[in-house]
Amino acid sequence: MSTPVTLDEDRAHLLHPLHHPSTYAATRIWVSGDGALIKDADGREYIDGLSGLWNVNVGHGRRELGEAASRQMATLAFHSAYAGSSNEPAIALAERLSRLVYPSINTFFFTSGGAESSETSFKTARFYWKALGKPDKIKIISRHRAYHGLTLAAMSATGLSAFWPMFEPRTPGFLHIDAPDPYRFVNPDPGVSLGVAAANKLEEAILREGPETVAAFIAEPVQGAGGVIVPPPDYFHRIREICNRHDVLFIADDVITGFGRTGRWFGLEHYGVEPDIVQFAKGITSGYVPLGGIGVSNSIRDAINNTPAASRWMHAYTYSGHPTCCAVALGNLDIIEREHLVERAAQRGARLLEKLRTLESLDGVGHVRGQGLMAAVEVVADKNTKELYPPQAGLAQKLTNAMLERGLCTRVAMDCICLAPPLMISDTLLDRMVDTLGEAIPAVLNAVASELSVR
Ligand SMILES: Cc1ncc(COP(=O)(O)O)c(C=O)c1O
Is the distance from the beta carbon of residue 220 to the nearest atom of ligand 1 less than 6 Å? Predict the structure, then answer.
């Protein structure tokens, strides 16, 4: 940056995601990163406990990704990838993904991020059923506590109600079922496992709405922003059965769980099932440049290819298949493969979870969970009833601040402290993250207890 910038200029000219002026006091200006560490404008260093926003999978400071971008920009800055026009990095990336992504998915469309990918999935699901002569199959079912982005249809699929009120009405035709949360889901049917009971909620919803009206079910293999909810092992098998039985497409939102985060390339690999559509973003470029996309099954690809030109798949973004973004993605995939980061995420994730479980004995730690390098510690007011702290306790902000003061940057969602560090993080830094939680949680809970008793 040639001239120094200030927070006053930020306040005067910049609207932030989830903007509100009350957050300015806590704003840090991030200036550099190296591996799993980031530095602010005051020169303080922090562990990047959430890999930015769950995306910097290969860590910061990878010069080769800058060089890949620079080479491509110097060769071809941009040209349309609309039908009848293509570019080399986009072709190479789609071909490479066809070998990495679920075996039944071989055809890809690129976007600029997660929400555009959600929109593309929903439109493609509706297109597919119209192409097959079932034009009434339009509804999309998702889960409470899901996050699928914040454009209007994506926001309507997102199951975190705090995002809705000031933007209502939501897009019609979107509905939600319960999340398969092993900690909080109350199994209404003792005859079946919690995973099957949670999946059966989908069948109930499809039957209630009428299968002839439902286009697709969308699910994150592990719900990220909703508090890292790892479903029971039998959940997705049952989901796949239900989708098959009722002709409902299954969309996997692998925006966070793709590209190694959970210790497998893609999240549903843990469950041995495949989706009809997979959507991705974040880790495909490790956040170095914006890129997302969807992959579709062969039967969806055939429906798109076999439709008469007059009713073609009229979906497009200017930046679909952007050459620089695709070139950076190819370089990022090289790093993930060369450094065996998927396997490392599995090993380091097992270590992280084991260490985090030592915190379960602390007052206020209700549940610890994770898969690969994606974990959460849920803080509760009462471990027996699982009751959360009242909103006026301001617990999430206090926990975030207490961790920042101790050199750990991460996010707290509904009193779940989320952890998803870069996949190359060292054991030493992993252990330091756990130690930081071990100090910050009791310190914050003691302060909150005395504040609440004074009120
Ligand atoms: C699972 C999931 N889907 C979609 C999105 C939306 O992505 P974006 O913010 O790039 O639009 C996110 C973002 O966090 C996400 O976690």
Answer: yes
